């Protein structure tokens, strides 16, 4: 349907690889400065981004957000909650959404990827960096060299226990180094996450393996076609985020993006914030940084 005809907060669904419908929502403003494509994190869902979406709408940006496959409403029998079959599929899902935006709007597209979404976004860049003008990474997951061990174990478990099992070993490998309350200092956010029925406990065995692959591929420099080396990339992380790997991990992430060939990579470290900088007590500070980056 025509972009103009879409009401604020209009649902859409798009048929993606392996006959799965990806469900999403469009939050439209008249004559937007750009359209923002949001990729959410692991084991969560699109509805957790409402504060950011309202802020971006108010500042003149239309927003498109979807549930990643195996999350929220983007499920079916073959793809139950927590199941992702391959990294290629989640990248292709974002490509289909990007195509959908382009077919309805001639405005620039900016992308925001949070946590696992930051890994999906960075993998999206390999072939499709020319399709977006700016990229914001939040809760930016760092590469961990132990990922090769995780993949080795993951392959064995998937072979012997099947794709759809829920291995405790893989869960432990996935969440190693995360203590309770790792999401945020914001207690209200922790309570909401705990009581949210769409917040998932775990991935399937295949889902974990896909996440490990997404991390491994962050260092696959040669796979990046680099069609848009001038792409502006901004990372925003909390100074107490356990997923970032400290200052050393963050610097490795920034250095990797520069080594790949991206010229405009910058970062902010937010004081007294943990992983979910978009849902922390001072989230408005993060929103303002994103706005300034988008307006620059």
TrEMBL record:
Gene3D superfamilies: alpha/beta hydrolase (3.40.50.1820). Residues 31-281 form the Serine aminopeptidase S33 domain. This is Hydrolase, alpha/beta domain protein. InterPro entries: AB_hydrolase_fold, Hydrolase_4, MAG_DAG_Lipase. GO terms for molecular function: hydrolase activity. It comes from Peptoniphilus lacrimalis 315-B. Keywords: Hydrolase, Membrane, Transmembrane, Transmembrane helix. The chain crosses the membrane at residues 145-164.
């Amino acid at each position: 349907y025509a972009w103009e005809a879409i009401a604020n907060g209009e649902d859409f669904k798009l048929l993606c690889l392996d006959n799965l419908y990806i469900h999403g929502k469009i939050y439209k403003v008249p004559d937007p400065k750009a359209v923002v494509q949001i990729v959410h994190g692991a084991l969560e869902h699109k509805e957790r981004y409402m504060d950011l979406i309202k802020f971006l709408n108010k500042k003149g940006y239309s927003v498109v957000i979807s549930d990643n496959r195996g999350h929220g409403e983007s499920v079916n029998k073959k793809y139950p909650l927590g199941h992702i079959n391959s990294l290629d599929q989640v990248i292709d899902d974002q490509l289909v959404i990007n195509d959908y935006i382009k077919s309805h709007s001639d405005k620039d597209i900016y992308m925001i990827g949070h946590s696992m979404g930051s890994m999906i976004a960075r993998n999206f860049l390999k072939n499709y960096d020319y399709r977006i003008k700016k990229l914001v990474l939040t809760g930016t997951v760092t590469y961990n060299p132990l990922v090769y061990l995780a993949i080795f174990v993951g392959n064995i478990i998937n072979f012997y226990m099947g794709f759809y099992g829920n291995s405790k070993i893989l869960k432990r490998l996935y969440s190693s180094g995360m203590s309770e309350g790792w999401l945020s200092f914001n207690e209200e956010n922790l309570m909401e996450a705990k009581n949210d029925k769409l917040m998932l406990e775990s991935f399937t065995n295949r889902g974990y393996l896909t996440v490990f692959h997404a991390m491994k591929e962050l260092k696959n420099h040669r796979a990046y076609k680099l069609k848009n080396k001038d792409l502006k990339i901004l990372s925003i992380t909390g100074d107490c985020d356990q997923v970032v790997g400290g200052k050393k991990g963050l610097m490795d992430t920034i250095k990797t993006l520069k080594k790949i060939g991206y010229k405009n990579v910058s970062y902010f470290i937010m004081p007294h914030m943990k992983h979910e900088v978009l849902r922390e007590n001072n989230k408005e500070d993060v929103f303002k940084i994103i706005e300034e980056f988008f307006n620059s």
